[in-house]
Amino acid sequence: MKKFMNEAAAMVAESLEGFVSAHGGLIMFGAERKFVRRRHLTPGKVAIISGGGAGHEPLHVGFVGHGMLDAACTGHIFTSPTPDQIIAAIEETDTGAGCLLIVKNYAGDVMNFEMAAEAVLGRHRIETVIVSDDVAAQGAARSSGRRGVAGTLIVEKILGAAAEAGVNLAGLKALGGRMETQIHTMGVALSGVTVPDTGRATFTLEPDEMEVGVGIHGEPGLYRQKIADADTIARLICSTILADTGLQNGDRALLLVNGFGGTPTPELYLMYNVARRLFEASGIRILRSLVGTYVTSLDMAGLSVTLSLLDEEALHLWDAPVLTAALQRGRHDPTGGC
Amino acid sequence: MKKFMNEAAAMVAESLEGFVSAHGGLIMFGAERKFVRRRHLTPGKVAIISGGGAGHEPLHVGFVGHGMLDAACTGHIFTSPTPDQIIAAIEETDTGAGCLLIVKNYAGDVMNFEMAAEAVLGRHRIETVIVSDDVAAQGAARSSGRRGVAGTLIVEKILGAAAEAGVNLAGLKALGGRMETQIHTMGVALSGVTVPDTGRATFTLEPDEMEVGVGIHGEPGLYRQKIADADTIARLICSTILADTGLQNGDRALLLVNGFGGTPTPELYLMYNVARRLFEASGIRILRSLVGTYVTSLDMAGLSVTLSLLDEEALHLWDAPVLTAALQRGRHDPTGGC
């Protein structure tokens, strides 16, 4: 394991310090460095708070800023933030309109965000949206078995834009509910990951193997198979997603191809190219696209493909301006662009 | 070698097709797909054209758009674009004010851009700026021995902003000349790279080794040593850069920490944190920062640190709005931000 770091135990804190230092115009540490928040809060706007283990950067801290999150809580690597961190974020960023918590569907995350919500009961109005976009576990019920993966950034973008537009807490909760069945992600890995603390790989692949249906915590996927060319991998992913979506001919969608940390951008664009053609051949209209390394699993080589239904409301909110470290877009015409 | 690709020979073309498809609002292919250009040219503005081998993405295609490049020519992996490509880009994007060519200092690139400039002599006014920011070869004269590496994106941003502001060809050439001694980059690698065509690694490091003074074409660096912690690596890089710059106490600078493709963003922020402290301890004022994966060497694990002097003019141009696939910034206050 080769990494740019000092002591493994201090890695997350040192990296966050650099992040806040580099983007000091947009963000700052919250109380006692328990979370990262916008430098300027908007009174009367619902505060959007997310968080999760470190190792998925730029998710979530990279999405703190105008048009997305108000605060993000970072735990240790692949470890949920503590209720204490989440409570501190709620207390500092709730300006009176309540807080919406966006939580990836992992037992630890769900539990700690729930504990935080209970702890502030009576003092803050809280609603929670659980993201569970991973289609790999086809049989599992969305509410229990499905993990929250790259689609989380779409939820954060769309709910963040809605909050910015003045939608209230109940409206955001309802919008989050409608999005629950609209986002579908599947991932493949060409390598496992090595966790800095332990120096151990979470799983090891042979030089000719790939892991299909992986999440973002280095856990093994659904199955392992011989590595294939990009066309074959894209067919496997896209057909699994299409079987899950129930999308109809003529439906409009956002296509996100997301790298897991160790995959170069040109490979992501190559896979985007193949996936877009496959979806379009199935009658889906790809109206918006995003290609890049956004929701990661340390330095894992691999990627995920996300297809998200874009109704008129979601399209409008996706196109709204955003100013965060990892995603910036002004009021220009986004047609066909990222 | 595991990569998301079909045939190695088609990799660059397939990836570029995906890139143009994903960012169709901003960019398009030029004639016969020989280059990527802005969708909308500005009549009377000097056209800024760059290019180089593939394998460095998002450089250069990711920087085509308002405020940076008008066109970028991509060669095969680590191979200069042909004069034919560059000539086509000149002919299509010169709207009457001439073309400025930004060329990284490699023999093949310099030769092919020169041949293109000669071929259009009398029909187009052409000036060229050679980027040679790599300080690793301390003894070498800037004009011959030093490679153009991550600092290239700073040259493209600043000259692109100047062209957008209406500076003419002679003014841009002069500005490029002034920047020549202001940008200083040094890189280290934790791995070699595997070129898809050959499937061979350009160099191989032991599990406890790093390569110091590397460029972006997988060539070996100055020397190899035992891997060290982030503080030690940063001291090595920053002291080499400071010895080269001649920067004085109180000078203002831009700090760029750039990943080579296989290094996760949190490690880049960690190194940024250490490097910023070291430079500030030397009296340099870090006014602007950029941290990310911008100028790459396929999937090489490693990074470079760039320190660039920011006089009043450069600061103003760095802050100007930009709208490209890889770099977007509106008219907000960039103080302390990226």
Model description:
The structure is a homodimer of 338-residue chains. Chain A is of the alpha/beta class. Chain A has 2 domains: 12-179, Rossmann fold (3-Layer(aba) Sandwich), CATH 3.40.50.10440; 184-310, Dihydroxyacetone kinase, domain 2 (Hypothetical Protein Tm841, Chain: A,domain 3), CATH 3.30.1180.20. Chain A has 8 helices and 15 strands. Chain A has helices spanning 11-22, 83-93, 107-119, 152-164, 169-179, 230-245, 265-281, 312-319; strands at residues 27-29, 36-38, 47-54, 65-66, 71-77, 99-104, 126-131, 183-189, 209-212, 223-226, 252-259, 285-292, 302-309, 322-324, 328-329. Chain A has a 6-stranded mixed β-sheet with strand order 1-2-5-3-6-7, sandwiched between helices. In chain A, strand 14 and strand 15 (328-329) form a beta hairpin. In chain A, helix 2 crosses helix 3 (107-119), helix 4 (152-164) runs antiparallel to helix 5 (169-179) and helix 6 (230-245) crosses helix 7 (265-281). The longest helix of chain A is centred in the C-terminal third of the chain and has 17 residues, at 265-281. The model of chain A is unreliable at 333-338 (pLDDT under 50).
Question: Helices and strands in order, then pairings?
Answer:
The structure is a homodimer of 338-residue chains.
Chain A: H1 11-22, E1 27-29, E2 36-38, E3 47-54, E4 65-66, E5 71-77, H2 83-93, E6 99-104, H3 107-119, E7 126-131, H4 152-164, H5 169-179, E8 183-189, E9 209-212, E10 223-226, H6 230-245, E11 252-259, H7 265-281, E12 285-292, E13 302-309, H8 312-319, E14 322-324, E15 328-329
Parallel strand pairs in A: 3-5, 3-6, 6-7, 11-12
Antiparallel strand pairs in A: 1-2, 2-5, 4-14, 8-9, 8-13, 9-10, 11-13, 14-15
Helix pairs in contact in A: 2-3, 4-5, 6-7
Protein name (chains A, B): Dihydroxyacetone kinase subunit DhaK
GO molecular function (chains A, B): glycerone kinase activity
InterPro entries (chains A, B): DhaK_1, DhaK_dom, Dihydroxyacetone_Kinase
